[in-house]
Every structure is written in structure tokens, then in C-alpha cells.
Specification:
Length: about 160
């Protein structure tokens, strides 16, 4: 009986130390914050397979599974639509599994999606109205990390979709 108790406790300890990214790195889903300009702009988030994951308008926080990449379509009346990507990078906590020698935890993190992090975690998209003098409309996109620091700012010309 004593032997079974020791085996059970050893297995429980190993399971608790595995899957570092799942336990310490935020789990299998992540919150992504949207700040559109104009403030009444709406957005639709689709996974890389085309499945609609969320939609909303204005400043919003959305919880998304980390194992996918996403396309975000931002729209506002009187503005041209803008499409922005949310990509996945490697969550640093996944390496904790290798440090502790727990290969099963490493596999669990990748299978469940906790091994990844979504980038950017704060998305500020600014749409400009088209100008009447024949100039193309532009959009300013601010990609930010989880602490709100600017990663990259993109200004892109918007091209009308063919009808």
C-alpha cells in the first residue's frame, strides 16, 4: 500500500511540474485588445481556416485560442475596410518544460496551443476617410505588445475592392 501511495504522489508531482506554458504562460487562450479609429468602427475576426471567431464594435477585448492565426477585418461607414493579421509566436514559458526534463509537458503545450502567443496583443487600427481630390485613402496601424509598447507602425494605401 505504501508503494502505491509513493507512486501516486510521484506521478502527481510530475504532472504538476509539466506543461509550463499551460500553467505559467497564460494557458491556451489570450486576450487581444482592439482600439479602432473611428471609435464606432466594427471588426470581424476570422481564424486561418475562415471560421468567424468574434465580432464587435469600438474598444473591445476578445479572448482567442492561441493555436490559430487570425485575420481581422475593420470597417466603418464612410471609410474603406482594412484587413490586419494576428500571428502566433513562441511563448517563452514552453522552454521551462525542457529545463525540467518533462517532454510530455512540452508536447501538451504544443497540442493545446499554450506554446504560442498572439501578436500583437493590442491592436490600434486607424482608418482615414477617402479624399475627394483623387488621392487614395490610407490606414495607420499601430501594433503593440502586451505592455502597450509600440512594436511597429504601418501606414498603407487602401485600394478599392473590384465590384
Amino acid at each position: 500500500m505504501h508503494r502505491h501511495l509513493r507512486t501516486t504522489l510521484t506521478c502527481a508531482t510530475l504532472l504538476c511540474t509539466g506543461a509550463c506554458a499551460s500553467i505559467l504562460g497564460g494557458g491556451t487562450a489570450q486576450t487581444v485588445n482592439f482600439r479602432p479609429t473611428p471609435s464606432d468602427a466594427s471588426f470581424v475576426i476570422k481564424s486561418s481556416t475562415g471560421l468567424e471567431m468574434s465580432s464587435g464594435a469600438g474598444d473591445q477585448s476578445v479572448r482567442l485560442p492561441r493555436k490559430n492565426e487570425y485575420q481581422v477585418e475593420v470597417r466603418a461607414p464612410g471609410y474603406q475596410n482594412k484587413s490586419v493579421a494576428i500571428t502566433k509566436g513562441l511563448n517563452g514559458w514552453v522552454w521551462g518544460n525542457l529545463a525540467f526534463g518533462w517532454v510530455v509537458g512540452f508536447a501538451i503545450d504544443f497540442i493545446g496551443g499554450a506554446a504560442y502567443k498572439l501578436e500583437p496583443s493590442l491592436m490600434s487600427v486607424s482608418l482615414d476617410k477617402p479624399r475627394g481630390d483623387g488621392e487614395a485613402a490610407t490606414a495607420r496601424i499601430h501594433l503593440m505588445d502586451e505592455q502597450g509598447r509600440l512594436i511597429r507602425e504601418i501606414t498603407t494605401e487602401m485600394v478599392p475592392l473590384p465590384r
